[in-house]
Amino acid sequence: MNLPELGAFLRTRRDRIRPAEVGLPQGPRRRVPGLRREEVAQLAGLSVDYYTELERGGAKSRVQPSAQTLAALARALRLNGDERDHLFHLAERPVPPSAHGPSAHVQPALLGLLDRLSNTPARVITDLHETLVENDLAVTLLGTSPARRGPAASLVYRWFTDPGAREIYPPEDHPHHSRSFVADLQAAAARRGRDAEVTKMIAALRRQSEEFAALWDTHDVAVRRVDRKRIVHPLLGVMELDCHNLLSENGRQRLLWFTAPPGTPGAEQLELLSVIGTQDLTASEPLTPGSLSAPERRPSGGAFR
After folding, report:
1. What domains lie within the chain, and their CATH numbers?
2. What is the average per-residue pLDDT within 222-241?
3. 25, 64, 168, 206: which has the fewest C-beta neighbours closer than 10 Å?
């Protein structure tokens, strides 16, 4: 392992990132223009001592970063694909393929945009609808994404196998979402070619869901780019929102975010989301714009907090 080169590479990568880019305060007394070591450690979920030793790269250092640690550092430092591969090469670890699932390396451009969408629910997902990262308002609106592996990490899979996954939409809207999910999956399957992950998921869905099998056999295809959705929220009731999708260059990841036209009930409900985090979600009466006074926005946790 080329520890001196690895440490030098990490130092140069953190020097170029400004705190505001990753949702951290600038602070009045910063000696470095980029991130501090403790900030990189925080973003990557590492101890400060471990990251410091890794970056110093001394000849006697015994640190042996795992593939999971390297992947976390790549995300924290906003490395692009070439930089991510270089990091793995320096650490003498096999370079993992560009993952599709929940462990996928989030496209830096999408991650940068997500950080700027602090006042609207937003998340980055894969083309199989696996959540990679999301902001606080997305969690408030949609609930916490399940930390799962395999097919169950995909909302498309859960939609056709777990009735609870459908509770977020009114029952009368379910046929529309079923058709949209399947048409979008058709496009993803063709884009990926003979990808084992999507092939296994399609086969499992055909076995477990007659609805999916019937829709799949229509061969309808359409990439989801924008959609009007009605979302059932436990406190705000039914929220009618526009869901926008911005696809990555290869189409395997997308940033989605929710808006509503100004002056509509949906826009007022989005304004209330910033205070929902302190409310009891078991409350029997839905909240209305008039039931709360001048809500203050709750700061978004960003992609890594």
Report:
1. 3-90 (1.10.260.40), 108-291 (3.30.450.180)
2. 91
3. 25
